[in-house]
């Protein structure tokens, strides 16, 4: 057999814990086992949380009128206007020209990293965090350094840790708010202090990942861009989570640049966006309907999500070996394994649970080797009977 073609280091080093654990789950399903999947934040995989009908109708209407060709590279004008109005309502002066529509937030991140990062640059991101913040910067010769979220204090931001890790190489400072996987929401004071730290480093831009902003159970969510008078902020959001349409792959980045420091980087971003043509045209019309039409449906979705989350928290309290800081937003629980002898064995624990009890969760070290180990992440989206069955299996696994 001939020698295989060598894979690039940038590809072989990528890990995505949320989907990597699916591989052994599929093998078990192929053997006939029923797997309760609590690993991925896809509301459409669970009963009771559908994409709003009026959004689907507008998506279909676009297809029916053959409006599915190439669109503008930065997004449909009407959608950019609607997004700018949405951001304006959060307290900052966002114009349509500040908005770029992308293939989900994931593409927005890839474009931002490509435009900002050079060899040895640093992305300072929270630990724990959404895995692409660790996976993608290294593709551009940069690296991710994590700042600590305090696990025993409702995952509050460790501002001293951020200050200690800031330097001239930090090009991007990331705030995921509400956070995936912990569900913590930054307070106004935390946001202001974060901005004050970044203000001391003129090369630093803040990424504000706010994809879960509408799933705030604390009523304390504050737009980061609304608090900055000088530091550039790139807000990320989209249709996936709050509008319950993850497969549409429509996101956006909205640029707040009070002193016009990012004009060269924006030129680079626009060049990249033009070279990849455009985001899905009909899906953009569906998102437009979500932004422009009534959001009364969201109250029901939010209430149902919160009920399921509260059920999970109650069951976690009842099980010896588990504990969890109460999330303030999103739809995840980042559960601590209190009886795990070696915190680094969280992935083994997750795989053992999968093979013995056929419940699929994600190891916490997949979200941060340093700050997430000894935990697992689960979604609280399934109906309560499914969640109860999952917890019965987990309880049996722990007692064995």
From TrEMBL:
List, alphabetically, the CDD domains matched: AAT_like
Q: What is this protein called?
A: Alanine aminotransferase
Q: Which UniProt keywords apply?
A: Aminotransferase, Pyridoxal phosphate, Transferase
Provide the GO MF annotations for this entry.
pyridoxal phosphate binding; transaminase activity
Please give the Pfam families that the UniProt record associates with this protein: Aminotran_1_2
Domain Aminotransferase class I/classII large span(s) in chain numbering: 34-393
Q: Identify the cofactor(s).
A: pyridoxal 5'-phosphate
Q: Is Ion transport one of the keywords UniProt gives this record?
A: no
């Amino acid at each position: 057999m001939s020698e295989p073609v060598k894979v690039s280091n940038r590809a072989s080093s990528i890990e995505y814990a949320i989907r990597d654990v699916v591989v052994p789950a599929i093998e078990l399903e192929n053997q006939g086992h029923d797997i309760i999947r609590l690993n991925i934040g896809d509301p459409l995989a669970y009963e009771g949380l559908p994409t709003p009908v009026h959004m689907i109708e507008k998506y279909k209407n676009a297809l029916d009128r053959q409006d599915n060709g190439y669109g503008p590279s930065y997004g449909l004008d009407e959608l950019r206007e609607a997004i700018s109005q949405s951001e304006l309502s959060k307290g900052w002066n966002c114009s349509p020209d500040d908005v770029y529509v992308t293939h989900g937030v994931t593409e927005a991140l890839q474009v931002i990293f490509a435009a900002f990062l050079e060899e040895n640059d640093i992305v300072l991101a929270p630990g724990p965090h959404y895995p692409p913040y660790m996976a993608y910067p290294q593709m551009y010769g940069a690296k991710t350094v994590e700042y600590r979220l305090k696990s025993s204090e409702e995952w509050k931001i460790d501002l001293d840790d951020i200050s200690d890790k800031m330097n001239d190489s930090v090009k991007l400072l990331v705030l995921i708010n509400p956070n995936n996987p912990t569900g913590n929401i930054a307070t106004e004071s935390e946001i202001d202090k974060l901005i004050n730290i970044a203000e001391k480093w003129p090369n630093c831009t803040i990424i504000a990942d706010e994809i879960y902003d509408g799933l705030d159970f604390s009523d304390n969510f504050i737009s980061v861009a609304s608090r900055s008078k000088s530091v550039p902020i790139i807000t990320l959001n989209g249709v996936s989570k709050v509008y319950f349409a993850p497969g549409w792959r429509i996101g956006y980045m909205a640029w707040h640049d009070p002193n016009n420091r990012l004009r060269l980087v924006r030129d680079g971003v626009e060049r990249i966006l033009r070279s990849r043509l455009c985001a899905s045209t009909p899906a953009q019309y569906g998102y437009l309907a979500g932004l422009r039409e009534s959001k009364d449906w969201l109250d029901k979705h939010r209430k149902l999500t919160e009920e399921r989350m509260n059920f999970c928290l109650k069951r976690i309290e009842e099980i010896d070996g588990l504990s969890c800081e109460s999330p303030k937003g999103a739809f995840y629980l980042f559960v601590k394994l209190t009886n795990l002898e070696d915190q680094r064995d969280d992935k083994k624990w997750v795989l053992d649970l999968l093979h013995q009890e056929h419940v699929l969760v994600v190891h916490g070290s997949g979200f941060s080797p340093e700050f997430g180990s000894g935990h697992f992440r689960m979604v609280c989206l399934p109906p309560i009977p499914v969640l109860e069955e999952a917890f019965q299996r987990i309880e049996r696994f722990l007692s064995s």
